[in-house]
Structures are given as structure tokens and as C-alpha cells.
Design goal:
4 strands; single chain; binds iron/sulfur cluster; 95 residues; Alpha-Beta Plaits
């Protein structure tokens, strides 16, 4: 039984030794941040499509009658979608 515990610790130590690889995680984290740049409140969204029409970068898309953020990495935070939404369903994070 003691050996089993030792194996688990060994695995964790292996991950720790690959610390250098953490650098590769950064782009992924940035992507996640981008995802939060534009937020659609699905309860408020009526699926009118205004935001899709005004977005110059093709970030948004209508899916199942609601706007969704399809390409968050392309968002330039211009705010056009937010201004065009009649239901105040979009929030653009300017940070
Ligand atoms: S903030 Fe601008 S670039 Fe980003 S989704 Fe809205 S309209 Fe498109
Ligand atoms: S403009 Fe607003 S209500 Fe219309 S599809 Fe976009 S998020 Fe939904």
C-alpha cells in the first residue's frame, strides 16, 4: 500500500520537474482572458443579429437564436456590438 502512495507522489514530482513548460500555458491563459472581453447575456439577448452585423471583425455569431462569442481572439474591444444591442445584452471589458 505504501508503494501506491509513493507512485502518486512520484507523478506529481514529475509534473513539477516540467516547470519550464509553464511558459507554454501563457498563450492559453491569454485566450481565456480574451474570451471575457465580450460577454453576452443570453437571457437578455433576443437574437436580433445587430451585434453580428456591426462587428467589423466577425467575432460574434448567432447560435440557437442567441448571440455567441465565436472568435474571442479577434475582438478589438471597439464597443460597436455593445452600442448596437437594443437589449443591453453585451458587455465589453475594456481592461
Ligand atoms: S467589441 Fe468590437 S470587435 Fe469586439 S465583438 Fe464587439 S464589435 Fe466585435
Ligand atoms: S444585438 Fe444584443 S439582442 Fe441582438 S443578437 Fe446581439 S446580443 Fe442579442
Amino acid at each position: 500500500m505504501g508503494e501506491v502512495v509513493a507512485e502518486g507522489v512520484g507523478d506529481r514530482a514529475g509534473v513539477g520537474e516540467d516547470g519550464n513548460r509553464k511558459g507554454h500555458e501563457n498563450p492559453f491563459q491569454i485566450k481565456l482572458k480574451n474570451k471575457k472581453m465580450v460577454k453576452i447575456n443570453k437571457e437578455k439577448c433576443s437574437g436580433c443579429g445587430n451585434c453580428i452585423e456591426v462587428c467589423p471583425f466577425g467575432v460574434l455569431e448567432i447560435k440557437n437564436g442567441k448571440a455567441v462569442v465565436k472568435h474571442p481572439e479577434k475582438c478589438k474591444k471597439c464597443g460597436a456590438c455593445m452600442s448596437a444591442c437594443p437589449n443591453n445584452a453585451i458587455k465589453v471589458n475594456s481592461n
